[in-house]
């Protein structure tokens, strides 16, 4: 349960590049992502820093803007592939970041793209986060949304899970803390209503299987290498080519190298299956990509 101490809450942010990147920094409480305003998308890779907050970790995967870039389909597939691996084993929520004053074709496309990749059930695990909360003035978010007909359908699809953030660096620490608290409570409530766990898009099931196979294959390779190299060192010693002291020293080094490889086995397995994950995303997106342009 993500509300428990010591657990990691995995959040995937989607939306307009600059807006979502600034929001990621607000959630993390530090400037971790580059949020310069640029004509082209600049969040060029999925990045996953964590914030330790009230006894738990909040892991933020900031994806690039999927529709505000000149980059081609393969770029989008690669970035989504990174996102899937970095939010593994599965995300608890997808946060769609919108500006208060906009819900354009671009944002509608982003929602359709999320459904295509993560499945229709993703909407039950989505939160709409509005930025520019400070511009509401005396209005509440509810009041504002009453007059925003085009936003109503997306909010209803998300089970009315929505909140607003002020991302300005000048805001008081207490307000930042209150915003994060509201968001975390919203995620926890949504997770409870969805059966107390993260959600399981089919793509993650495939990735889990591939990662497991790759990890097991690498382990067998490393164990074989260790056994072979250890045997070789022992034979050298038996033939009098090296002393017993040198043999023990070399065996210790071989053992340390093996342990280091085992420690990094997950990262290597991820690198090895990355192209497979990209291909899985490609299979989904290439059929529907033209609908978005």
From TrEMBL:
CDD domains attached to this UniProt entry: AIG1
Domain AIG1-type G: residue ranges: 6-208
Family matches, as InterPro entries: G_AIG1 (IPR006703), GIMA/IAN/Toc (IPR045058), P-loop_NTPase (IPR027417)
Domain of life: Eukaryota
Keyword terms, alphabetized: GTP-binding, Nucleotide-binding
Single GO term (MF): GTP binding
The protein's name in its UniProt record: AIG1-type G domain-containing protein
UniProt similarity note: Belongs to the TRAFAC class TrmE-Era-EngA-EngB-Septin-like GTPase superfamily. AIG1/Toc34/Toc159-like paraseptin GTPase family. IAN subfamily.
Pfam families: AIG1
SUPFAM superfamilies the record matches: P-loop containing nucleoside triphosphate hydrolases
């Amino acid at each position: 349960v993500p509300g428990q101490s010591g657990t990691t809450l995995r959040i995937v942010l989607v939306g307009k590049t600059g807006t979502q990147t600034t929001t990621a920094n607000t959630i993390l409480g530090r400037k971790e992502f580059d949020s310069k305003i640029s004509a082209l998308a600049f969040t060029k890779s999925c990045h996953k820093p964590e914030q330790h907050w009230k006894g738990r970790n909040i892991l933020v995967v900031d994806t690039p803007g999927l529709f505000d870039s000149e980059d081609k389909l393969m770029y989008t597939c690669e970035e989504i592939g990174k996102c899937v691996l970095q939010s593994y084993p599965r995300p608890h929520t997808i946060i769609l970041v919108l500006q208060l004053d906009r819900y354009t074709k671009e944002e509608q496309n982003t929602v359709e793209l999320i459904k295509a990749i993560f499945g229709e059930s993703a909407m039950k695990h989505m939160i709409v986060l509005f930025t520019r909360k400070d511009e509401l003035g005396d209005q509440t978010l509810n009041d504002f949304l009453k007059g925003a007909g085009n936003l109503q359908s997306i909010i209803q699809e998300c089970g009315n899970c929505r909140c607003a953030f002020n991302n300005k660096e000048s805001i008081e620490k207490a307000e930042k803390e209150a915003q994060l608290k509201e968001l975390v409570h919203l995620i926890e409530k949504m997770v409870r209503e969805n059966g107390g766990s993260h959600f399981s898009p089919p793509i993650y099931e495939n990735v889990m299987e591939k990662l497991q196979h790759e990890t097991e294959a690498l382990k067998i390779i490393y164990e074989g290498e260790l056994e072979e190299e250890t045997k070789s060192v022992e034979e050298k010693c038996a033939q009098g080519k090296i002393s017993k002291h040198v043999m023990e020293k070399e065996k210790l080094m071989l053992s340390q190298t093996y342990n280091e490889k085992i420690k990094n086995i997950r990262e290597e397995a991820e690198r090895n299956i990355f192209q497979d994950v990209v291909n899985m995303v490609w299979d989904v997106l290439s059929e529907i990509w033209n609908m978005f342009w």
